[in-house]
Amino acid sequence: MSKRDYLGEFEQVVLLALMRLGEGAYGVTIRQEIEARTGREVSLGSIYPTLHRLEEKGLVSSYNGEPTATRGGRSKRHFKLEPHGHTALNRSRDMLAALWRGFETDAGSQAKS
Amino acid sequence: MTAPRIPALLRRALDAIHPDAVAGDLLEEYTEHVLPRVGRFRARIWFWKHLCKTIAMAFIEKVRHARNVRLMGPALATTRHGAPRREIMGTLWNDIRYGIRMLFKTPVLSLSAITTIALGVGLTTHTFSVVYGSVLKGLPYEGADRLINIDRTRPPVSSDMSAPIHDFVAWREQQTVFEDLAASRQGTVNLADADMRPERYDGAFVTAATFAQVGVQPIMGRTFNEEDDTGHTPPTIIIGYGVWQNRYGGDPDIIGKTVRANARTTTIIGVMPPDFHFPFAEDVWLPMGLDPVQLPRGQGFFVRTYGRLKPGVSLDEAETQMAGIAQRLAAEYPATNEGISTHLEPYTEEYMPAQITAVLYVMLVAVFGVLLIACANVSNLLLARSTVRAKEIAIRSAMGASRSRVIRQLLVESTILTLLGGTAGIILGYVGIDAFNAVFMDMERPYWIDIAMHPPVLSFAILITAVAAVVSGTVPAFRASGSDIHELLKDESRGSSSFRMGRFSTGLVVGEIAVSCALLVAAGMMVKSVVNLRNLDMGFEAEDVFTARVGLFEADYPTEDNRRLFFDRLLERLEALPGARAAALTTNLPMMGSGGAPFAVEGESYVVDQDYPGSPRSFITPNFFDTFGAEIREGRDFSLQDRSGAVPVAIVNQSFARLYFEGESAVGKRIRLGRSGSELPWLSIVGVVPDFHIGGNTGGIGNDQIPTEMIYTPIEQGSFRFLSIAVKTAGDPLAMAPQVRDVVAGLDPNLPIYWAYSMDQVIENQTWAFGLFGTLFGIFGAVALFMAAVGLYGVMAFSVSRRTQEMGIRMALGAYGKDIVRIVLKKGFVQLGVGMAIGLGLGVALSRPLQLIMFDVNAGDLSVYAAIVVTLGLAGMVACFVPARRATRVDLVEALRPE
After folding, report:
1. The 3-state secondary structure of B551-589, one letter per residue
2. Which among B54, B55, B79 is the top mutation candidate for probing chain A, defined by the most A β-carbons within 10 Å of its own β-carbon?
3. Contact at CB, B50 and A45, closer than 8 angstroms
4. Cα–Cα distance, B371 to B418 (Å, whole number)
5. Would you give the DSSP letter of residue B273?
6. Which value does ipTM take for this structure?
7. Chain A residues with CB inside 8 Å of B26's CB?
8. Does B26 reach chain A within 8 Å, measured CB to CB?
9. pLDDT tens digit sequence for B224-238
10. The model's pTM
11. Hey, are the CB atoms on B61 and A56 less than 8 Å from each other?
């Protein structure tokens, strides 16, 4: 595994949102999904550069949708998780899980004391 | 409902991400979600806050991307699937910035490469400017390349000659292939105005059609018309722009004014544009007048004939028709035209002998050789560098840079080097042209020859720079990018990569040595010819001799007696000048060439006219030999008693005496000028003098066919209008000029002197071409030698540095320093030897056409070849020896330490 395939936290967040949204995800829905799930306010300004980078790495792909009136006649840019993205997500999850193994309860008790 | 607009300027900031999609998303959320929930005012705030944040983040993304480019090189910063079209300019810019950084990272290499290219481009540009200015440019008039010169020839013996006026008139009447034919002859024109110093100008006597055929209009007034051609109109003159400006201060009312031209009151009818000096380098024009046509054939003057080909007529067709006309004339006038034909060639070529053109092209080939060496050098330097960078390039490829991407970047780097070198070279070219013109400007030459950075020359310079960039950059780029990635990414073992560059750069160095050797051969020949010339024994003392020329015109001096009286008094007064140690008059100064004459030796018999010998001859006054510091070897000098009417006498030089009176004294013998029908008197030889170098460029520069024999006869026994003055002075000869001018003005206030030079200058004027070409080839040779040595040194030094480990091991195993030196030298010497062998062969080929401008040097001169082998060998040895010595000082610990 090369260094390039390592995912940052926000990259994982965005990829997971894409996985949840499935076909037809675009800027607005991605942003809302993340906000709704994490309770964290995110802006398009952070989502798009991340998507751009993920696309460069070949983890997601994008294509233009139909333009609509409410968008001032501009097309949506739909994003889709690629198989590579799935693999990378799984790997990140496994890596974290491996690191967490045996600490689940300890972590909780430490937090209490 | 109005949606907020995103200013175009701000949208540009979103370029790094998907600008349309981002803007659309913002608007959609604003319209569908935020506006209904929070109201218009707060929705607007929401919108702008998010837009600004997005722009800021997009900007950060842009910076991050750019930083990656800088850190990892452009190859890494692109996507795996190739850059979209619009990004190519962006990455090119990155390549350029990266290339400039590489330039400063290896300053020595960059500087050598730039210097090398600068020298190559500079020399090539300079030489091309000479070729362009003198051969290719031609006359600066519309369609002037169709202006053809027509000469008379007498095949197979004689070369081109001017035509008698009668031939010109017949040609003009009978031909149909030219728009018209015009003719001219050159001569002295003395201008004298009230209260202005009389001055002598180079003038041309032309027929009216000349101006139309050349294709030029006067800037004021008119040119000559058919009436002027008759020679029966009042005298008229057309003046050049320079004369108008300098002599008449640009007087706007000059047309219609009168001037005394060659002692006749003449009306100025026109002023020609600047830079018009047709037919050769003339400043004023007088109508020729076809009056002499009334004379019988065989009399009258000779003229140069030219005309423009009619549209659609080829030179061959014209040649055919003119040959036909010549044949008819030969049949009609066998006495004057027997065996005469014509020769046609473009006007400018008539003045640029084919041999000189050949020399110029040889020079061009020579400097292309230098340029080639320069390219090879840069190529080698880049190869050396790319070998060092092999790992960097391999990493790039591994990271996804395509081969073409890597090649492009390497090409950009080499192009930057060549462009800088080319710019410096063009500046060098300017400097060279300036220096060349400083020597060349004063020389007698056709007026259209103008050595300058003409636009085509500049284009040429830019073109060769581009070619140099491609030639020197391509091979290293392809070689470097084509390396086996796996091989290089493995831990590098020192030396492995040097073999890869080995064979190709060895070939380059051999080629360089060969080309520079060839150039050095040519340069050596030229330098030797200059040395020969400087050491030439001219047979006379040129120091402290003032010379000038003076000419009399029939209007003021109608009879022979008038002229003789003038010259007698002139000589008397010259001898009486304070500071004059001796003075003489002559038809031909030494070194200026002399006309030849056939003659007969008394007692010899000649069967046919062709059997009569010929010799240069010259007319002199007594004291001619004193003036030039020569002693009479036998017999006596001419005296004042040797006048017309006295016993006709002659003096001959030692060569003449040796050739015709072998073993006897020439004094007392008699010769007679002319061939079988000669009615001239027999001349008694009264003296024998040393050989003076006769010189002259009758057969082209450096013609060694000029005979050394000479016949001198007294001026008093001939009749002349133009004579040269020679005065031996006590001090600086040129300080004599005002006094001589005053003497002449004292005899005739309307008479100018001209060609006022010291005898040393006269010699310089006759021989400058040898010096000029010698200097140029000397420069070519020196530059070539320098470059080849640097090239050899570079490759040797590099290969030694790559073999440090090998040397270390050898020394650790017991090799001595001298063994190491031997190993390194062996490689260098093989290259040197092979290169020189090829180069000497090339040199022989190159120096053959140069024979023409060599003074007394044979193309097979072994001493030159030997000198070149020694020089190049020594330079090559030094270039090899320095790196070899370095190899022996290898620090063993350092060399053997694993990486």
Report:
1. ECCCCCCCCHHHHHHHHHHHHHHHHHCCCEEEEEEECCC
2. B54
3. yes
4. 12
5. P
6. 0.82
7. 44
8. yes
9. 988 888 878 889 999
10. 0.66
11. no
